[in-house]
Amino acid sequence: MSLVHIPAEEKRRVLEELADVKELFAARNWFPGTSGNLSMRVGEMDGERFHFAITASGKDKSKRTAEDFLIVDQAGRPAETTNLKPSAETLIHCEIYRLTGCGAVFHVHTVFNNLISEYYGEQGAVPLQGIELIKAFNIWEENAAIAVPVLPNYADISAIAKLVPGVLNEQVPGILLRNHGIYAWGRDAFEAKKHLEAFEFLFESVYRSLLLNK
């Protein structure tokens, strides 16, 4: 769908939802030093053509302004005239949307997701088993086990984006960058937020379990 055919009301709704999520996560200190990025798809997928709103690069995410977001296309290019620059990690969002058809992608940097991604970095995944909040991913079997992929944190974002198809698991709506942060996604902002909160709880649980078992 062309951006010109997407109603203005739809764009405003997406930007308002993103602003609300940004405010909530900023209050939790999930965007230290302007880090992290949030995005939501605008309109429907048209094959591999789509648009999404994403946080502008280098902004203080604890503030709410008219310049917090911009809309980009499936290649991460601004779809409207703007002086804003999309987040440096936009290409990773592009790949997640292309591969999953999701509605929102949230990326935050926290102490727990950094420590856990580094601890399990050489294994290439964080193993999680028997923790109640795995149910947040609609996995209901008893003593369920999942593995959250961990990708290397290259300076070249395009090199990271190329690795996403090889690790993406439709049952596990998240990918960690080693010593960097988590990308979590969902059908809409509500589900992406739910998944992100579940991942953060799971990472903190694993970290504290490791300390207890020392």
TrEMBL record:
UniProt keyword list: Amino-acid biosynthesis, Lyase, Metal-binding, Methionine biosynthesis, Zinc
Superkingdom in the source lineage: Bacteria
Pfam families xrefs: Aldolase_II (PF00596)
EC number: 4.2.1.109
Catalytic activity line of the entry: 5-(methylsulfanyl)-D-ribulose 1-phosphate = 5-methylsulfanyl-2,3-dioxopentyl phosphate + H2O
Record-annotated Class II aldolase/adducin N-terminal domain positions: 16-207
Signal peptide: none
Molecular functions per Gene Ontology: methylthioribulose 1-phosphate dehydratase activity
Cofactor note: Binds 1 zinc ion per subunit.
Enzyme category, top tier: lyase
Pathway: Amino-acid biosynthesis; L-methionine biosynthesis via salvage pathway; L-methionine from S-methyl-5-thio-alpha-D-ribose 1-phosphate: step 2/6
SUPFAM superfamilies linked: AraD/HMP-PK domain-like (SSF53639)
Task of the protein: Catalyzes the dehydration of methylthioribulose-1-phosphate (MTRu-1-P) into 2,3-diketo-5-methylthiopentyl-1-phosphate (DK-MTP-1-P).
Designated name of the protein: Methylthioribulose-1-phosphate dehydratase
UniProt organism field: Paenibacillus medicaginis
